[in-house]
């Protein structure tokens, strides 16, 4: 695994993504989700909302890095809030 | 009849899952790891956090090639989609001519990218090329190696020549799938040719058109070989598109960190656009 040049932050990041996917799968098996319409302009499933949440979070991080001097944790905190909002009301 | 749910079929997905993990996910993870480190050699690498992302996002060279890339992809779509539809509408529908047309249309699609680049490089040369020399003889100054506008036009025309067939063939198949009753109804209503196109053919072609737009966007957004062979990105940086900038960074200068950060930004752009097209397509089906 040395050639992959792992670092602790990226390992934590990918573990979190992996856990999210496993968790979502188990959740889906326990309680299959129904497509519904929230504040997003399309009817979305739980997985759709997670994808939209993560994609927007990635762009939010790029925005913070690209145009501001803010600490990156601000972007991460905002992303977590955004993820919770989009999963609940999206 | 009762259906018995059997989730064992999911195991059949496993080979694809493994293949994708091996060919896409693991390299992708490695790129992410590279993008947060300054790597000198295998044993000396240092964590730099988001520094490369900051450098890449504020690099005017990348802004320029990103802008160029969007303009290029926009031009490609604006030319190829209407032209492809027009060709599909005029292609013969029955008989020997239709087969001949299909074969002729498919020929450019079979030619590899670097060969297309070479063909146009020679074709457009101002001294010996059929196109370049003819234009110059006619008194039109044309030199794709020196003039920015000429280089752009050549790269665009080359792409139109190479890929409009794809759009035309997709539209042709879409048109053939329209049942004759629609046309009969239109004839009874004495609909004009434009009305037939606007209210029957275009709506029925919507799905294939979305596929065509998506394929052409993706391909033109990732274009590398053709302009690289034809103009080498020049004159100056006039036709240096994103993937060429990325290759210069990763292979030419061996700046692995910034190149990794940049390729992830590139990936996110493509991911967003593909997702938008995909969502538009699937929701168009539902409506």
Automatic annotation (TrEMBL), chain A:
<protein>
    <recommendedName>
        <fullName>Small integral membrane protein</fullName>
    </recommendedName>
</protein>
<feature type="transmembrane region" description="Helical">
    <location>
        <begin position="50"/>
        <end position="67"/>
    </location>
</feature>
<feature type="transmembrane region" description="Helical">
    <location>
        <begin position="6"/>
        <end position="29"/>
    </location>
</feature>
<keyword id="KW-1133">Transmembrane helix</keyword>
<dbReference type="InterPro" id="IPR018678">
    <property type="entry name" value="DUF2160_TM"/>
</dbReference>
<keyword id="KW-0472">Membrane</keyword>
<feature type="transmembrane region" description="Helical">
    <location>
        <begin position="73"/>
        <end position="89"/>
    </location>
</feature>
<keyword id="KW-0812">Transmembrane</keyword>
<dbReference type="Pfam" id="PF09928">
    <property type="entry name" value="DUF2160"/>
</dbReference>
TrEMBL record, chain B:
<protein>
    <submittedName>
        <fullName>ABC transporter permease</fullName>
    </submittedName>
</protein>
<feature type="transmembrane region" description="Helical">
    <location>
        <begin position="97"/>
        <end position="116"/>
    </location>
</feature>
<dbReference type="InterPro" id="IPR000515">
    <property type="entry name" value="MetI-like"/>
</dbReference>
<keyword id="KW-0813">Transport</keyword>
<feature type="transmembrane region" description="Helical">
    <location>
        <begin position="208"/>
        <end position="225"/>
    </location>
</feature>
<feature type="transmembrane region" description="Helical">
    <location>
        <begin position="70"/>
        <end position="91"/>
    </location>
</feature>
<dbReference type="InterPro" id="IPR052730">
    <property type="entry name" value="Sugar_ABC_transporter"/>
</dbReference>
<keyword id="KW-0812">Transmembrane</keyword>
<feature type="transmembrane region" description="Helical">
    <location>
        <begin position="12"/>
        <end position="36"/>
    </location>
</feature>
<feature type="domain" description="ABC transmembrane type-1">
    <location>
        <begin position="66"/>
        <end position="277"/>
    </location>
</feature>
<feature type="transmembrane region" description="Helical">
    <location>
        <begin position="259"/>
        <end position="278"/>
    </location>
</feature>
<dbReference type="GO" id="GO:0005886">
    <property type="term" value="C:plasma membrane"/>
</dbReference>
<feature type="transmembrane region" description="Helical">
    <location>
        <begin position="151"/>
        <end position="172"/>
    </location>
</feature>
<keyword id="KW-1133">Transmembrane helix</keyword>
<dbReference type="InterPro" id="IPR035906">
    <property type="entry name" value="MetI-like_sf"/>
</dbReference>
<keyword id="KW-0472">Membrane</keyword>
<comment type="similarity">
    <text>Belongs to the binding-protein-dependent transport system permease family.</text>
</comment>
<dbReference type="Pfam" id="PF00528">
    <property type="entry name" value="BPD_transp_1"/>
</dbReference>
<dbReference type="GO" id="GO:0055085">
    <property type="term" value="P:transmembrane transport"/>
</dbReference>
């Amino acid at each position: 695994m040395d050639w992959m040049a792992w670092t602790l932050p990226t390992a934590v990041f990918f573990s979190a993504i992996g856990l999210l996917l496993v968790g979502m799968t188990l959740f889906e098996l326990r309680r299959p989700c129904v497509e519904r319409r929230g504040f997003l302009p399309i009817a979305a499933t739980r997985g759709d909302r997670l994808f939209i949440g993560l994609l927007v979070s990635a762009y939010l991080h790029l925005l913070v890095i690209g145009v501001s001097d803010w600490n990156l944790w601000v972007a991460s905190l905002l992303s977590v809030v955004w993820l919770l909002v989009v999963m609940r009301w999206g | 009849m009762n259906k018995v749910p059997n989730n064992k079929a999911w195991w059949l997905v496993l080979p694809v899952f493994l293949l994708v993990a091996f060919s896409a996910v693991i390299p992708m993870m490695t790129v992410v790891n590279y993008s947060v480190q300054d790597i000198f050699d295998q044993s000396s690498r240092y964590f730099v956090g988001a520094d490369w992302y900051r450098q890449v996002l504020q690099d005017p060279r990348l802004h320029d090639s990103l802008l160029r890339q969007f303009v290029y992809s926009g031009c490609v779509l604006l030319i190829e989609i209407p032209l492809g539809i027009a060709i599909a509408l005029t292609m013969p529908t029955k008989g020997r001519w239709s087969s001949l047309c299909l074969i002729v249309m498919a020929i450019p699609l079979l030619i590899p990218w670097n060969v297309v680049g070479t063909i146009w490089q020679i074709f457009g040369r101002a001294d010996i090329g059929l196109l370049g020399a003819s234009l110059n003889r006619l008194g039109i100054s044309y030199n794709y190696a020196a003039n920015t506008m000429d280089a752009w036009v050549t790269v665009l025309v080359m792409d139109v020549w190479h890929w409009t067939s794809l759009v035309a063939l997709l539209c042709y198949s879409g048109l053939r799938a329209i049942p004759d009753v629609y046309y009969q109804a239109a004839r009874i209503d004495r609909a004009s040719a434009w009305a037939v196109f606007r209210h029957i053919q275009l709506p029925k072609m919507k799905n294939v058109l979305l596929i065509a737009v998506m394929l052409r966007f993706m391909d033109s957004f990732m274009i590398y070989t053709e302009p690289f062979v034809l103009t080498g990105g020049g004159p100056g940086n006039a036709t240096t598109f994103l993937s060429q900038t990325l290759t210069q960074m990763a292979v030419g200068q061996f700046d692995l960190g910034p190149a990794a950060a940049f390729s992830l930004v590139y990936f996110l752009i493509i991911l967003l656009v593909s997702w938008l097209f995909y969502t538009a397509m699937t929701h168009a089906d539902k409506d």
